[in-house]
Amino acid sequence: MNPTATQTREITLTVNRQVITIQADPNSPLLFALRNDCQLNGPKYGCGLGECGACSILIDGKTARSCSIPLKAAIGRQITTLEGLSQNGQLHPVQQAFVDAQGAQCGYCLNGMIITTTAWLDHLTERPSEADIRNALKANLCRCGTHLEILDAVRLAVANKFPEADSAATRQPQTNQPQQDQTSTNPLEENSPWNRF
Question: Domains in the chain, ordered, with CATH?
Fold first, then answer.
């Protein structure tokens, strides 16, 4: 037997509230199983190093980079992809905000932007600042330069969750503004929420 041959075995995962069983190498990236075996195209292959955010998913409600997580690490966890955010035919509020704000160009980075925003907003108990929003997204890369539209979409999602008197101001693009401090005043429990589940 070739010791370098790929060792596949039966693996059971919980993905988008459904239990699935696949035959795969437990050391292969979780991303490959989601895309190839589960036919879920929300998470994208970007850098392959867990740096760009295109492959982001939720594991037990926390953002994780599926390209750098071995399949075996997700066994027994609740995995949610972009496809699993919507329920009963209704888009998740963050997804709807991106639609309403037209926060897309090519769309390749949107999976990571939406997944990250969803996990971040779920942790918040009070309205975040502009610096908080930018800090939450700073590890997700967009090569098209759609940052202003993406920020508008996240501001809209924030305004919808925290409908206060100044919500209209939050929806406005923050153009021609000086660079703001990127330090969050409402950090998550972990400085790096991905791959820390």
Answer: 9-82 (3.10.20.30), 93-171 (1.10.150.120)
